[in-house]
């Protein structure tokens, strides 16, 4: 039998892990933007899209990296603050993140892994004790 205290500890750990996953994954998106806009020269990144778009379009589309950062960071703050809406923000962030990853696949393919972890966290949020629906206060 699992005690209430054990459940609470597990939910607290899950909340921090998922919150940091969201915020950390969001922060990594800034690297793409810095490279594409030429603000920083990150040796591991080419900054070149993997699909056929010109540089002007790439510069505009690259704002998606910044937007994905903001949305994922908001989701992370939401889960840390025990807000039920964090799941919606996380899914929107993952969709945008994965769109950016597909466009810059050569540079960003490994970003699919944290996106899958975020999706798993959303779907397992009730089991993890981080769903924060009305009536749940872990």
Description:
With 138 residues, the protein is mostly helical. It has one domain (4-128). Helix content is 70%, strand content 0%. It is built from seven helices and no strands. The protein has helices spanning 4-36, 55-61, 63-80, 86-103, 105-108, 112-123, 125-128. Helix 3 packs antiparallel against helix 4 (86-103).
Task: Spell out the key features of this protein.
138 residues, mainly alpha, 7 helices, 70% helix
Strand content is under 5%
Mean pLDDT: 91
Count the DSSP helices.
7
- How many domain regions? 1
Distance between the termini: 18 Å
Sheet/helix structural class = mainly alpha
Summarize the SSE layout with pairings.
Elements: H1 4-36, H2 55-61, H3 63-80, H4 86-103, H5 105-108, H6 112-123, H7 125-128
Short description:
It is built from 7 helices and no strands. It has helices at residues 4-36, 55-61, 63-80, 86-103, 105-108, 112-123, 125-128.
């Amino acid at each position: 039998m699992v005690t209430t205290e054990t459940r609470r500890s597990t939910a607290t750990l899950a909340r921090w892990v998922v919150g940091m996953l969201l915020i950390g994954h969001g922060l990594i998106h800034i690297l793409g933007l810095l490279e594409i806009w030429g603000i920083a020269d990150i040796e591991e990144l080419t900054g070149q899209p993997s699909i056929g778009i010109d540089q002007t379009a790439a510069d505009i589309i690259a704002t998606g990296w910044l937007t994905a950062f903001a949305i994922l960071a908001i989701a992370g703050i939401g889960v840390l603050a025990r807000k039920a809406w964090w799941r919606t923000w996380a899914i929107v962030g993952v969709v945008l993140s994965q769109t950016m990853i597909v466009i810059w696949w050569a540079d960003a393919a490994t970003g699919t892994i944290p996106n899958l972890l975020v999706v798993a966290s959303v779907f397992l949020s009730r089991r993890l004790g981080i769903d924060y629906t009305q009536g749940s206060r872990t």
